[in-house]
Amino acid sequence: xxTKTIDPGLYKVGLGYDIHxxxxxxxxxxxxxxxxxxxxxxxxxxxxxxxxxICDALLGAVGKxxxxxxxPNTDDQYKGISSLILLKKVHQLVKEAGFGISNIDCxxxxxxxxxxxFRSKMGETIGRALNLEISAVNIKATTQEGIGxxxxxxxxxxxxxxxxxxxxxxxx
Length: 172
Prior knowledge:
By secondary structure, the chain is an alpha+beta fold. About 25% of the residues lie in helices and about 30% in strands.
């Protein structure tokens, strides 16, 4: 019986996490989509915690640090910037490292608003930004059941996992 081994350099996995406080006077963006809500996420950019988690997952998978290293909150060129622009820049870094994106799986933690009506649009928006099939982007949303930061709807957090593959094994 022969055993097949997988080259450990063919695939890599990255994990991302981000959280931003909800504040009055800002628009709410998640997954590159504007969500109607009385509060938005506080941050230097548009503070899209889902896209920031995806950026960190992708950067981690290819060993390129984290979002804060590439787009520091001390740099005015990123003040108020759309996180979709940051995601596209991260995608370029992934390609320059010799990798393509296989898939992304995410979960958003929020007590409100209800995100179910926006999840497919988020997936489409992220897929377009990364040139991925919609089936390669999975977004889930859940609450924290009133435990922890979520008990008073103080913040929205997101986790993301990204699988990347060496580009020479696909037709990308």
